[in-house]
Amino acid sequence: MAHKVMITDTVLRDAHQSLLATRMRTEDMLEVASRLDQVGYWSLEVWGGATFDSAMRFLGEDPWERLRALRKAIPNTRLQMLLRGQNLVGYKHYPDDLVERFVVAARKNGVDVFRIFDALNDLRNMEGAMKVAKREGGHVQGTISYTISPVHSIEAFVQMGKELAERGADSICIKDMAGLITPYAAYELVAALKKQVGLPVQLHTHYTSGMGTAAALKAVEAGCDVIDTAISSMSLSTSQPPTETLVACLRGTEYDTGLDLGKLADLSRTMTETRKKYASFEAGIAAVDVNVLQFQVPGGMLSNLVSQLRQQNAMDRYYDVLDEIPRVRADLGYPPLVTPTSQIVGTQATFNVLMGERYKVIPEEVKRYVSGYYGRAPAPINPEVQQKAIGSGTPITCRPADLLAPGWESAKAEVGPLAKSDEDVLSYALFPQVAKPLLERRAKGMGGKEEVAAAIAVALFQQQEAREKAKGSAGEPMAAGSPWKMFARSGLMTRGGWR
Predict the structure, then answer these.
(1) Using CA atoms, how far apart are residues 111 and 414, in angstroms rounded to an integer?
(2) Whole-model pTM?
(3) pLDDT in tens, the chain (499 residues)
(4) What is the distance between the alpha carbons of residues 364 and 178, in angstroms, rounded to a whole number?
(5) CA-to-CA distance for 213 and 256, rounded, in angstroms?
(6) Pairing relation of β-strands 226-229 and 201-205?
(7) Rounded distance, CA 449 to CA 441, Å?
(8) With contact defined as beta carbons under 8 Å apart, do 208 and 180 qualify?
């Protein structure tokens, strides 16, 4: 299976989302954009995931303007985005008309490769976006959310790969969001996909468990065509394996990437300095966290959990919550832990521990999950938990989006003259409470830099406040207030939905 291996670098999307709370600003991306374009990557992941929300919410930036600026600065390399199927770049299902318009706009503004996944691996939630991306001339990367459970297997993943191919996928991505895939599992899965599906295969993994580079190398030996990496100064920990390491490992072999280590070293030095600007947002997770092997918790989920528990002066319950997460996951039918299911499982586990009773409090998002509004669970849900969550209610069995009314015209009417383009309407439709203030500031002629400075100042203040509170309140009981208030203070969840 000797072949040249290609590289997708995640430095402009997943790397800073994993390490720096998605806070990298467009101006810092543009500083290295032209040099990234000269490396010869198969693609650059630059958009999607949490970056859309975070650009507006924390940086005062328009994510569409970011995409256009990067497209202009990177004319020669494919630009890639992560699309959450029917969730698009949000945390809930959107109606089909918004899905279609979003994919069309993303393609028009510069996206070449659409990596489309669903948190439950429910293909019904993926096929709409896949169909539109294909129609618009995009590269459709059908994505398998890799996880480990009694109901997930190599055979099941290969069958999903076949079904993705039948729906028009141009390539298959193994999305290992928690860094769980072992080198030999990677070899077995890639080899099976190559033999039985016959499409190009790409591996995306995280270094959380410490197995990332080894898994990538075994995947290459099995015939993997493209590997996701991150430039070394933005790699490791909860990010991807380092680009330079993999390039050096394969250099002079039949898999040689052909990439210039000198150019990569130059980029790494620049990103070392850039990363320093965002030191206050560092996740603070060790270079290798073997807890992921036991609890299967992605790095981003760990950092959110730590934040929640610190807010409640409950860090002494950290391992209790970690122990509870696999139990809740089993109760809910073994969903892969990726947005938004990771938040759903993690929050329920935290409630179970801090309330002192399992399922004493069940958030609305968990009830909606149990009711089928996120899609089909991989395995049956624990009947006792279902009873506690929705009583005698009957879960839906149709595709969740079939129950949604069209959203474009209503969003367009609500946002009114603030929207100057279809992209503005889409931003509002997806995140109304975040997009509207951004559009209002723009209408007043205000830029984003004041908001950036304010956001950073607030974040630093909150972190200092949390540290002081932790020092002075060690051992105190959990803060009073409703569970909803508790999680609102954590910054992860509001009554209106997930952050």
Answers:
(1) 28
(2) 0.89
(3) 568 999 999 999 999 999 998 999 999 999 999 999 999 999 999 999 999 999 999 999 999 999 999 999 999 999 999 999 999 999 999 999 999 999 999 999 999 999 999 999 999 999 999 999 999 999 999 999 999 999 999 999 999 999 999 999 999 999 999 999 999 999 999 999 999 999 999 999 999 999 999 999 999 999 999 999 999 999 999 899 999 999 999 999 999 999 999 999 999 999 999 999 999 888 777 778 887 888 887 766 776 677 778 888 999 998 899 999 999 999 999 999 998 999 899 999 999 999 999 999 999 999 999 999 999 999 999 999 999 999 999 999 999 999 999 999 999 999 999 999 999 999 999 999 999 999 999 999 886 544 454 555 555 555 555 555 555 433 333 333 334 344 443 443 332 333 3
(4) 25
(5) 15
(6) parallel
(7) 11
(8) no
